[in-house]
Amino acid sequence: MEIYLDNCATTKVCNEAASACMEAMTQQYGNPSSLHKKGIDAESILTSARKTTASILNCDPDSIIFTSGATESNNLAILGGTAARKRDGKTIVTSTVEHASVEQTVAFLEKQGYTVKRVKPRPDGNFAAADFIDAVDHDTVLLTFMMVNNELGTILPYESIVSSLRRKYPKLLIHMDAVQGFTKFPLNIRKIDVDLISFSGHKLYAPKGIGGLYIKKGIRLEPVLHGGSQERSLRSGTQAVPFIAALDQALRLCMEKGPQWMETYRYCNHYLREALQKIPEVMINSPENASPHLLNISVPGIPSEIMLHFLEQHDIFVSSGSACSKGAKSVVLKAYGLPEEQVKSALRLSFSKDTTKEQLDVFLDTLEQGIRRFKAVIR
Ligand code: PMP
After folding, report:
1. Which is the closest atom of ligand 1 to the Cα of 324?
2. What is the pTM of this model?
3. Whose CA is nearest to atom 7 of ligand 1?
4. Is 78 within 8 Å of 102 (Cβ atoms)?
5. Which of 150, 197, 330 has most ligand 1 atoms within 8 Å of CB, for mutation?
6. 328-340 mean pLDDT
């Protein structure tokens, strides 16, 4: 039995999305920019997916553009947003726990002369909206922050951050990296007045290489890619129609089954927390109020990679932090204030709609075997 507990890194594509992808590749294979029927057929896929995405955010379909994923969306939002507002200020506010595609992009702008203020979590691991509000001032051109952290699962207080700052600074550009929260938590832009929202398909049962950016009406961005003027000239390049068809289906399924899947994540999280609390060597790093779709734990003394590969030998797949950092020690967990020993031994377990209690039982047994095996060697 293969037990995949690395769904924050990526998910298995659902059958509905895979079939839609296949159909678009073999039937509706025209270029959406072509004027003939094949082009119009392909374009109808884009229109449908834009509508589906828009219905999740409660926005106009024209406000959605498709990209290759959230890394690209984050780059476009940050680089394109600041480039279009060169005169509006030279300060960017973000958090210390952002994904590399936000952190490295603001760090790039920092080298170009921007001041970057990075808001820290409070000692209990949660963020306070007040800390973001204090960090923003009249020189701030952009606030960019994540909705749900991808390593611990902490949910940032996005509603209060956005509503307070919107009241105080109506013109502030606000971007949210919603990758880990999109379709899991409510994000109605009529209630949460964000300007830009990034999301990614492969975290929600669509293929890797497709994502998008919500752009509020009236918000100007400089394009990062120049070319054939697709996606309102903001993302030139022929659209990945098959992946967009797949995204459409995956999103529809998320809307239909999302609440039920959330129950599965909750069940898995609760079940593992209860069981892990009985293993004295294990520490739970994710706070109780974190998103249920993941659980970060540590076995101090046993480095992440050692346990990860031991589990892998038993066909159990977990992560040692964010997949994007490829085994490097997590700067994000450090930023959350976790002690070195916990950072070095962290394991991220993340659930899918198909994770079962039986799989978790096998994981727990194997983890305990690993602890017994390595404790004797390492200590
Ligand atoms: N932001 C967050 C919070 C993520 O978890 C990820 C994926 N690990 C990304 C951005 C990047 O998404 P993509 O893989 O679609 O580029």
Report:
1. 8
2. 0.97
3. 9
4. yes
5. 150
6. 89
